[in-house]
Amino acid sequence: MAPDIDYLALAPEITLAVTAVVVLLLDLFLPRRQKYWTAIVAVLGVSFAALPLIALAVSDVGDRAMLGGSFVVDDFALVLKGLFVIAGYLVLLMSVGYVESDRYYQGEYYFLLLMSILGSMVLASSRDLITLFIAVELVSQPMYLLAGWRKGDLRSNEASLKYFLLGVLASALLLYGMSFVYGLTGELTFAGIAAEGAGKAGEPAFIMAILFIIAGFGFKVSAVPFHFWAPDTYEGAPTPVAAYLSVSSKAAGFVALLVVLYSAFPDASGVWGPAVWILAALSMTLANLTALRQTNIVRLLAYSSVAQAGFMLVPFAAAATTDAVGLGEAFAATVTYIVIYAFMNLGAFAVVIAGARKTGTGDIEGWGGLGSYAPALGALAAVFFFSLAGIPPLAGWIAKLVMFGAAMGAGSPWMIALAVIAAINAVIALVYYARVVKTIWMDPVPATAPEEEVRTASVAGSLGLAIGLSAAVVVVAGFFPSLVTFFSDATKVLAGG
Amino acid sequence: MGWFDNGWGLSLIVFLPLAGAIGLLLTPRKNEAAVKAISLLFTVATLVLAVLMAFRFDFGNANEFQFGTSLTWIESINSGYHIGVDGISLPLLVLSAFVTVLSVIYSFNHWPEPHNPKGFMGLTLVLATGMNGTFVALDLVLFFVFFELVLLPMYFMIGIWGDKAIMKIPGFNREAETRLYAAIKFFLFTLFGSAFMLLGFLALYFKSGEYGTRTFDIPALIELAPNFTGTFAFLVFAALFLGFAVKVPMWPLHTWLPDAHTAAPTVGSVLLAAILLKLGSYGFIRISIPILPEMAKQWAPAIAILAVIGIIYGSLACLAQTDMKRLIAFSSVGHMGFVMLGIATMTPVGINAAIIGMVAHGVITGLLFFLAGSMSHRYHTRDMARLGGNMKIMPIMGGILGFTAMASLGLPGLAGFWGEFMALFGAYSPLAGLNTTLFRTAMVLGAIGTVLTAGYMLWMLQKVNLGEPSEEWGDQHFHDVDPYEMTAWVPLVVAIVVIGVFPRLVLGATNDAVVSLVTKAFGG
């Protein structure tokens, strides 16, 4: 008997898959000078994928589960799918000018990017270990290739290889941990694991399985000590790909962590809570201290994104010591942080792409005086970097607020200690974020800066659109945080809150 | 005028400057006339509304929040857009709107380098929204946002338009321009304090009830004050203390202040001294004391001791300065020490003293920074050893400087007198239960501080104003006060005299509110 398929629930994924195939085929038939059509089709396809999401959001059917509960479209899945679509859309916009100008293989580039977005969409709905694993791999595999897309550049080769080797290691750890879980519970769906595993939280093998899974996802979200690939990969990869890695791919890792930990191991929060506590504290502190010494702007953003991952992990640690309500709050706090982080970090990367073109360098020192010859870009850079630092009235502050809230709400001394660590780290982080803004606005134009035409050349339209959209969200959500918290509140269903 | 009274008037006072900043954003950079017109229009409109509010204020019910509104803002954490003014915040709100207008007018003829009126005015306007908003916010999250909103504009003001002299960075074997060092130091110190302040706010939120009834609302939390006791309250008070004490600034967290004040452009220094410092002391009065009265009482001796150290240390540091602007900056440490001493007494007299002290310090030190800015604009130096005989070179400016210095040292009949006198008076008999000996010792030391204040102010006058002009100025021509300066300064001079002669102007508004605050916090 063929399983029941709810085609509307699958429509976003189907749209993306079809678009990806169309892009690949189109690339075969297009003459070299018209390859830009692949970009247009890709952007249109991602836009169309958003339509069924809206239809699903307003439909009153409620949660749609199929394939024996392995694939579920609930509010959590919808919100995160929406985020992945928007983030993917912004990365596509950032890619257009970048890929065109450097004669990349455009068709294949967009095909791979679309496949990765497809993976993240499936991930948000996956509710069993196998679907989850396949989705995670579908997010990562295209990225191994895209990281090495600048074939002529050795650093890009290094980026790809490093990411590939460590990514495969992470996948192995993940599978190993999952096999333990399956062996111990005989279940693959998260609901089943939660039911079967309720009494097993104390078994060494079960604890080991959870730790393996956390380690595996630790690589994906680049938390310390699993972050070593991130700076080199970000620096070597094409910048839009780095942006995607730091936002969508990282968010995918977090979504996987959220669904696995909260819905498959709710009774073992005493195991994973402390483990995540350590990851969070290490990620924030070590990444921030290392970021202080960076001179390359992409590497700086790489360490910054590791530190931000630490902030996002803080609410997880709270789950171990809190009640059911607090669990929901912690869950929503991470989602809020991810959503806001996506926009501010994509914006920061988009500004970096535009700024690197104008200044001709990725060295922060070379960006001196950017504010004097490109005031709009300089102002937007300040918006994104100070938002990352969490300074009101930019959206980053509400992300920090809910994160601190989750930690303080748990109330245990360990969580308050973590909140204090996070507070000190927020101050340390300001030093390096402000240093970029200082260079842009307060330093003189260096002698090495390119000539006038390059500096004042206008930013590519699609890139400008990406920057403008991100900035609008960052500013508006800073004044009206409910725009974001409304959605993250809806996701609490998954934590039972 | 229904609309004016039920929140719109107050919201306009807060957000008109921000609207002006958005207007400036859309104005071409080259069109300076439009930039000036927009910034003047929006700040004057704000001041008019603030003055109108002062006239419509019901002084018979000064202890109640008026002109307020309460709307849902962030539903998921039950944080609201709750605003309102009472007798405590009204004088500070008017002061803020008042000084902003004068700063804008002064700027018209004194654009700091690099010349960029659009950017400079835009930041001033954003700053105004942050300052006004802090004084009217009645929700902790809203308060936090406004409190932090002032950071970015001030950071850019100092960093872009600040002092370009090279200095050695203490503790590092490196040199940097003063503006860069001062800007980031200001930012880091304040953020460090406010990060902990935010943790304190969250702790109060979670203690305020069960899920669903938790609140960030300041009046609601004041009602819940008896629930906040023990170690919990002690730690929360400590967290809030860090946030507010950095801003005031209290010794030993004051070190950002001399650097920031000295490096900032004139208008930046004025706004920093006149308004931004008050955000900290206002926080103590609005949040720390009423919500955590038990702890306030427990911490009072420590606050008094730090305040007195601030007074003495600030005064002594002034005597060691060679830079006129830096001297005025250190004088702020001393003056804010008196404000904090007043607050530490936890009595109506002391807290009234603190508020009138804040207003007086705002107008007096604001004017002093204007003067210091204009003088260094003309002499191209702030080194007091090179200045001298200013009375002979620019008699009007010298006269105003003399007058303001007298006001600053607390001459009776001028605004500065009341804050210092009443703070000392309050310290004689602090709240029942506080250590009288300690506070009386503080009073004596504070009184010595007033003598030292007189000492350094007169010393500065002697160095700058009196004597014969140095030879290097001999054949130069100096413009005395220009019309823009006159327009900006005369209102301040008038305010200093009026508040000095007629302190009821401030105390009439504050007294009922302060008495009710103290009664509620510590019982009749």
N- to C-terminal separation of chain A? 36 Å
Helix content of chain A: over 70%
Number of domains of chain B: 1
Order of helices and strands of chain B: HHEEHHHHEEHHHHHHHHHHHHHH
Uncertain spans of chain A, ≥5 residues at pLDDT below 50? none
User: Strands across the major sheet of chain A, in which order?
Assistant: 1-2
Beta strand count of chain B: 4
**Roughly how many Å is the radius of gyration of chain B?**
22 Å
Task: Report the helical percentage of chain B.
Answer: over 70%
* Biggest pleated sheet of chain A: 2 strands, antiparallel
Question: Ends of chain B: how far apart?
Answer: 37 Å
| Sheet with most strands: strand arrangement of chain B | 1-2
- Which consecutive residue ranges of chain B, at least 5 long each, have pLDDT under 50? none
Explain the overall architecture.
By secondary structure, chain A is mostly helical. Chain A is 77% helix and 1% strand. Chain A has a two-stranded antiparallel ribbon with strand order 1-2. Chain A is globular and about 70 Å long. The mean pLDDT of chain A is 89. Chain B has 524 residues and is mostly helical. Chain B has one domain (2-522). Chain B contains 20 helices and four strands. In chain B, the strands form two sheets. Chain B has a two-stranded antiparallel ribbon with strand order 1-2. A two-stranded antiparallel sheet of chain B has the order 3-4. Chain B starts with a helix and ends with a helix. Chains A and B meet through helix 15, helix 16, helix 17 and helix 20 of A and helix 5, helix 6 and helix 7 of B.
What's the short story on this structure?
In chain A, 77% of the residues lie in helices and 1% in strands.
Question: How do the strands and helices of this protein lay out in sequence?
Answer:
The complex is a heterodimer of chains A (497) and B (524).
Chain A: H1 7-29, H2 36-58, E1 64-66, E2 71-73, H3 75-101, H4 106-125, H5 129-147, H6 154-185, H7 190-196, H8 204-220, H9 229-236, H10 239-264, H11 269-291, H12 297-319, H13 324-359, H14 370-373, H15 375-389, H16 396-410, H17 413-442, H18 452-456, H19 461-479, H20 482-490
Antiparallel strand pairs in A: 1-2
Helix pairs in contact in A: 1-2, 1-4, 2-3, 2-4, 3-4, 3-10, 3-13, 3-19, 4-5, 4-10, 5-6, 5-10, 6-8, 6-9, 7-10, 8-10, 8-11, 9-10, 9-12, 10-12, 10-13, 11-12, 11-17, 12-13, 12-16, 12-17, 13-15, 13-16, 13-19, 13-20, 15-17, 15-19, 16-17
Chain B: H1 2-25, H2 32-56, E1 66-74, E2 79-85, H3 89-107, H4 117-136, H5 140-149, H6 151-161, E3 166-168, E4 175-177, H7 178-207, H8 218-223, H9 230-247, H10 256-263, H11 266-291, H12 293-319, H13 324-344, H14 348-379, H15 390-393, H16 395-408, H17 415-428, H18 436-464, H19 483-501, H20 504-522
Antiparallel strand pairs in B: 1-2, 3-4
Helix pairs in contact in B: 1-2, 1-4, 2-3, 2-4, 3-4, 3-11, 3-14, 3-19, 4-5, 4-6, 4-11, 5-7, 6-7, 7-9, 7-10, 9-11, 10-11, 10-13, 11-12, 11-13, 11-14, 12-13, 12-18, 13-14, 13-17, 13-18, 14-16, 14-17, 14-19, 14-20, 16-18, 17-18, 17-19
